[in-house]
């Protein structure tokens, strides 16, 4: 037992929340690149690479374009990736966070969508640093962000309990990861980092109400958490204090308020520095909610096993837990957001189109009568004996009466069933290539694969994330081109957008 563990035991539960929070803050300050296992560094680079790809593609999404209009008149020096815009650091963290999650292709299994929260916050903090941030420092900050965000979620009782209660953990817990990672990049000491985490608790929020009508608010959650975490660190840097009893069992405490019946406070620091939470995260092969991926994999295996195509399938039945039914049981596909949360649509796309890539969620595909026909023939049945964390069982019946069932316990993209580097690069180019020229995408990929060797993130990575730049010019993104400009180019200056 460590000295701090003994201290916690000696004080008892009434003081454990304070000590655990202090331990997290000290961990953020003390962790060095050399402390990270090589396999963890390799995985961190894969997740960073994947998040950049998802964000670049997401920059062209409708919700990202609409969000940029809100900050149309803002000025600053921090790039909005996949555009030629520069805005303030907090606005960039938000906009890049929104774009990262916009197409449901960002990673999962952390806070939940840790990459979409942590990476935009870290990059915004890099833009504010008064010294060059090298690749090793960058990787370390990202790993810390994943670590803290996930630990807060586990302290809430983990994913199914916290999200099942109506909270969207990407927002509620992700803000802590963004604060921790930003604090590390900005060089905050342990006391300041403690305040940053405390302030982040007041910035926490995010509800699953979007699930009932397919609204776009879910896409805002990652951006809001990235912005909130960055601001929490910046406020703490300026001496503003945050509550040290945030994780105590007190009125207004985070766990008591958001997880009163499910809290596991010891998860905050259990095996801290020994069990790394990024190691449990998944990279998405499909452009849908991660809850649908096991069933997509199972359907693919069953089609191969029975050697049938769409014309030979009679119907499909899915036995699933109540939580997955509530989260992905909808049939609304009018919006991209709704379709990506629909298990029926994901299976119909896999059956009719043969894949669940981003193109499968285009408006033309969503309105295809074949999709509606097949969605009506896919039955979802709740199995009360299934764990809320359990994967569904897919049963397929053929027109000639054959039937087979399968549960894929470890979906593609999970740590136990990872995408190959070749598949990861293919995904990256398919996404980044939507906004970057092939040569620029290749340059970015090359930098990311050797991230730990880079001397300055600001001079190596940042230039490859911007598009359409010509010396002395200003280009307004396509979605914003119709909005009247309130100032001349000269009044705005070349550093805007």
What would your notes on this structure say?
Helix 3 packs across helix 5 (89-101) and helix 14 (293-306) packs parallel to helix 17. A hairpin with a 4-residue loop joins strand 5 (393-398) and strand 6 (403-406). The chain folds into 2 domains: 3-280, 2-methylcitrate dehydratase PrpD, CATH 1.10.4100.10; 290-406, 60s Ribosomal Protein L30, Chain: A (2-Layer Sandwich). By secondary structure, the protein is mostly helical. The strands form 2 sheets. Strands 4-3-5-6 form a 4-stranded mixed sheet. The protein contains 23 helices and 6 strands. It is globular. The longest helix has 21 residues, at 38-58.
- Helical fraction equals 40-55%
Q: Characterize the overall form.
A: globular
Oligomeric composition of the shown chains:
single chain
Radius of gyration based on Cα positions: 23 Å
Q: Total number of helical segments?
A: 23
What is the name of the CATH superfamily of the largest domain?
A: 2-methylcitrate dehydratase PrpD
Which architecture of the largest domain does the CATH hierarchy give at level 2? Orthogonal Bundle
Strand order of the largest sheet: 4-3-5-6
By helix and strand content, what is the structural category? mainly alpha
Poorly predicted sequence stretches spanning 5 or more consecutive residues = 10-14, 469-497
Per the CATH scheme, the topology name of the largest domain is 2-methylcitrate dehydratase PrpD
First CA to last CA: what distance?
52 Å
What percentage of amino acids are in beta strands?
A: 5-15%
Indicate how many domains the architecture comprises: 2
Q: Class of the largest domain, according to the CATH hierarchy? A: Mainly Alpha
Number of strands: 6
Largest sheet: number of strands, sense, barrel closure:
4 strands, mixed
Arithmetic mean of pLDDT: 91
Sequence of secondary-structure elements:
HHHHEEHHHHHHHHHHEHHHHHEEEHHHH
């Amino acid at each position: 037992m460590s000295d701090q563990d003994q201290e916690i035991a000696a004080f008892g539960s009434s003081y454990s929340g304070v000590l655990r929070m202090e331990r997290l803050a000290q961990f953020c300050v003390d962790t060095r690149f050399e402390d990270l296992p090589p396999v963890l560094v390799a995985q961190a680079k894969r997740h960073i690479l994947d998040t950049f790809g998802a964000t670049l593609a997401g920059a062209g999404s409708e919700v990202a374009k609409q969000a940029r209009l809100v900050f149309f008149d803002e000025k600053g020096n921090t790039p909005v990736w996949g555009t030629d815009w520069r805005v303030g650091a907090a606005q960039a963290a938000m906009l890049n966070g929104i774009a990262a999650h916009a197409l449901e292709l960002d990673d999962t299994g952390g806070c939940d969508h840790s990459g979409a929260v942590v990476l935009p916050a870290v990059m915004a903090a890099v833009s504010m640093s008064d010294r060059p941030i090298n690749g090793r420092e960058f990787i370390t900050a990202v790993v810390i962000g994943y670590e803290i965000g996930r630990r807060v979620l586990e302290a809430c009782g983990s994913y199914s309990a916290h999200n099942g209660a109506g909270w969207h953990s990407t927002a509620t817990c992700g803000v802590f990861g963004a604060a921790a990672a930003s604090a590390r990049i900005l060089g905050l000491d342990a006391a300041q980092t403690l305040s940053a985490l405390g302030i982040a608790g007041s910035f926490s929020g995010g509800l699953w109400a979007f699930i009932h009508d397919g609204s776009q608010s879910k896409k805002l959650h990652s951006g809001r958490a990235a912005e909130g975490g960055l601001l929490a660190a910046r406020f703490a840097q300026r001496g503003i204090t945050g509550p040290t009893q945030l994780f105590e069992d007190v009125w207004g405490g985070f766990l008591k308020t958001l997880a009163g019946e499910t809290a596991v406070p010891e998860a905050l620091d259990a095996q801290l520095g020994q069990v790394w939470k990024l190691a449990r995260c998944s990279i998405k092969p499909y452009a849908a909610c991660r809850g649908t991926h096991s069933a997509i994999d199972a359907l693919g295996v069953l089609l191969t096993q029975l050697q049938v195509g769409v014309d030979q399938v009679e119907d499909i039945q899915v036995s699933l837990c109540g939580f997955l039914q509530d989260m992905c049981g909808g049939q609304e596909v009018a919006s991209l957001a709704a379709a990506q949360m629909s298990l029926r649509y994901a299976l119909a796309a896999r059956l009719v189109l043969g894949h669940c890539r981003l193109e499968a969620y285009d408006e033309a595909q969503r309105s295809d009568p074949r999709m509606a026909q097949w969605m009506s023939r896919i039955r979802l049945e709740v199995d009360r004996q299934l764990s809320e964390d359990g994967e569904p069982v897919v049963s397929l019946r053929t027109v000639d009466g054959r039937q087979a069932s399968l549960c894929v316990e470890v979906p593609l993209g999970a740590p136990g069933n990872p995408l190959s580097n070749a598949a990861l690069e293919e995904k990256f180019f398919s996404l980044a290539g939507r906004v970057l020229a092939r040569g620029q995408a290749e340059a970015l990929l090359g930098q990311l694969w050797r991230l730990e060797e880079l001397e300055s993130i600001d001079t190596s990575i940042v230039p490859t994330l911007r598009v359409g730049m010509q010396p002395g010019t200003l280009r307004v993104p396509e979605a914003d081109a119709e909005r009247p400009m309130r100032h001349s180019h000269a009044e705005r200056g070349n550093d805007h957008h």
